[in-house]
Structures are given as C-alpha cells and as structure tokens.
Amino acid sequence: MKSKRILVIEDDPITCEVISVVLEDFGFELMTSSDAEQALQVARDAPPNLILLDLSLPDSMALCAMLKREPATETAAIILMTHHLSEEELSQVVNSEADAQVSKPFSPLGLLAIVHECLQRQNVPLT
Fold first, then answer.
1. Model pLDDT, residue 47
2. Which domains does the chain have, with CATH numbers?
3. What is the DSSP letter of 7?
C-alpha cells in the first residue's frame, strides 16, 4: 500500500503549521521545507505522493519543473499555492506542470478536498 506522504514547500512558518495540523489530523505524513535545495533533498530521502509548493518562493516555477523531472518526485502530484495572480503569473500557472492550484488564503476543507482529488487520480488509498 502506498503511503500518504506530502511534502510542503512553504517559507511562511504559520502557513506551514496550519497545513501540517490540518493534513496530519487526516492521517497524512507531512514533510516540510522552506527552500528548493532542502525540498529536493527531503524528497530524495523520502519520496512524497504529493507536493504543496508555494508559488511566491523564488524560482518556484523552475522548481516545479525540476520536481517533475526528478526521479524521486516525477510521479508526485504538485499543487501550487498562490496569492492573487497577475495575468502573466496566471498564464505561467496554467502552462506549468502542476496538477492543481489552490489560492491563499484557503479553507482547511478546501485544501483537503484538492489534496484528496489529486491523490485519487494517482490511485493512492485515502483510508
């Protein structure tokens, strides 16, 4: 049985804590990182089923592409976490290799729903 491992790449400790509390309460194993280099190492050590990536991090779109090519994460679903986007940023998100996006601030149940949807597409058991 596949695990339900999620890597959260987020530099805001409060947002990271909220995400962790919500998803851990529903049985997900959480790993966190605040930068690209650390995220890649964490993912290589324990490949996640899903990645939550903060779009406001430096070079986040390049990181998204890199994660889709990294052997440890190439099959992981990627959800981009975004704030209000300009038209150019929205175009980048639409053309990215991400599987979904969620706008900040998000509700805990809204986040959980999109996580479940992405994991179900990967046939990861949720129970």
1. 96
2. 5-121 (3.40.50.2300)
3. E
Structure tokens at 94: 């639409």
pTM metric for this prediction: 0.89
pLDDT 10s digits, 92-112: 655 577 888 888 888 989 999
Asked if residue 34 lies in contact with residue 10, where contact means CB atoms within 8 angstroms, the answer is: yes
Angstrom CA distances, 99 to 14, 39, 96, stand at 24, 18, 8
Q: How many CB atoms lie within 10 A of CB 107?
A: 10
Amino acid at 36: A
Are β-strands 29-33 and 50-54 bridged in parallel, bridged antiparallel, or unpaired?
Answer: unpaired
Distance between CA atoms of 60 and 71, rounded to whole angstroms?
Answer: 18
The secondary element (H helix, E strand) that includes residue 77 is: strand 77-82
